Amino acid sequence: MRLKYVLNEVLVGLWRNVTMTVAMIITMSVSLTMLGASVLLYMQVDQMKNYYYGEIEVSIFLRTDVTEAQRTAIDQAISSNPLVQERTYETREEALKRFQELWKDSPEFVKSVGPNSLPESFRVKLKNPETYKTFTDQMTGMQGIQDIIDQRALLDKVFNIFNAIQVGALVVAGVMALAALLLVGNTIQVAAYSKRREVAVMKLVGASNWFIQAPFVLEAVVAGLIGAILGFVALFVGKIVLFDNKLQALTNILTPIDNGNVWLMLPLLAGVGALVSAVTAWVTLRFYLKV
Amino acid sequence: MADPAGLAFSLHRVDSVPVIQLENVTKTYPKASRPSLDDVSVGIEKGEFVFFIGPSGSGKSTIIKLLLHEVSPTQGKVVVNAKDVTSIRSWKIPHFRRSIGCVFQDFRLLPNRTAYENVAFALEVIGKTKAVSRRVVPEVLELVGLGGKEHRYPHELSGGEQQRVAVARAFVNRPLILLADEPTGNLDPDTSIEIMRLLDRINRTGTTVVMVTHDSNIVNQMRRRVIEIESGRIVRDQARGVYG
What we know:
- The structure holds 2 protein chains of 2 kinds.
- Chain A is of the alpha+beta class.
- Chain A has helices at residues 2-16, 18-55, 68-80, 92-102, 107-111, 132-140, 151-194, 196-205, 209-246, 248-254, 259-288, and strands spanning 58-62, 84-90, 121-126, 145-150.
- Chain A is elongated, with a radius of gyration of 30 Å.
- By secondary structure, chain B is of the alpha/beta class.
- Chain B has 8 helices and 10 strands.
- Chain A binds chain B through residues 1-2, 5, 197-198, 200-209, 211-212, 291, and chain B through 90-91, 93-98, 102, 108, 110-111, 121-122, 124-127, 129-130, 169, 173.
């Protein structure tokens, strides 16, 4: 009987104040969508880092007037450096060939580049990509080097943008969460007020605190769960629309978003939504009901 | 056998465990200039019927609140059913309240529930099953004289009948103590007397009844123990008293 009573009270409570319930669910779902997007982005950046950092190299471009002796000295310095895993040497001709391959869709651009415009280079793969700074510092002093370019530095710029988006999503999630919390608190107060007579009688005859509070807390939890499910659906639809259709070209660079990761958001959002609602409702009741 | 009264008296003494005991209780509300109760000590034994009388603001309602642990004493000890009320952990207070029934001036019934449902609600929210309600509620409604009116809503009942529902609700759990805070305050004299008869009947089942009132008529008719409070102090404690 008690379970039936509690569940019935929850449904009646949600329905009695239906506009507030809807507002609560919407803010909750927007907040959770943002949270989910932020977490997904974080996982995505992490995955891309793993993927790209394994591939990246440090390129040491040589001056066009580099002498044979300088080239040998650089080669030896690279080979004997303990940070280096492997190195390849790329002649001007090879560089040109690679360039032509890369830009084969724009023949005019290719034509404008002669065999001497591209420098020869050493492509160095480090044992640990994190040590590129040390390696670069060790190499910079050497004669005959035009430029040292670390792909990691380029990638970091890309990742910084992703991180900024992620932080932005988190901020929006936080602001919406605050609004959601206030709405939950308000809804619970209204619910407690509309049931003040019952609550007074329950306290009078000695109903236990959990029994008095459970319907209110569950009301908030149910709203939180519905918000979480809506948020998850929004994430899933967003993923399909944005990444699987509109931005498919980008996903070749971005590494595809794993569907498993998206599914992982469902328990995450549901857990966060339910827990946050429950705690807010409970805290509100402690102030409002004063058992 | 020569002195049956004396025997009864001595038995009574042996048996006299105070069910309510206030020891030097002082209660000062925050921001109040003087205490509502000032060093009050009083003992009430099991099965007694006690009136607390006194003008408004004398502190008599504070006693009810202390007994229910709605407020804590500033100083002193409140013992109910051999339990020091102030030492009860807050989460155990609901359970503690189940041994006390309460009746108020304003009845405090749920308007959208029938007489039966009002009483059953009190049982079911403390975990009793519907089967228990079905057995116990008609019985107690019969006891308070509402047989046949179980399915009326409060607005379909007279004031006296509503108060009977409230008494039924307070008594359905067979509490050791029944607290009544001005139970006749909203009722006409004849109805008040009927409610008093009901409380008297409940008292005869062994339930201790503590009633706060300033209805002199009733106090004078009942001739029970009267404790008069004025400005937070007990000024009179009489075994078979009148309003005075």
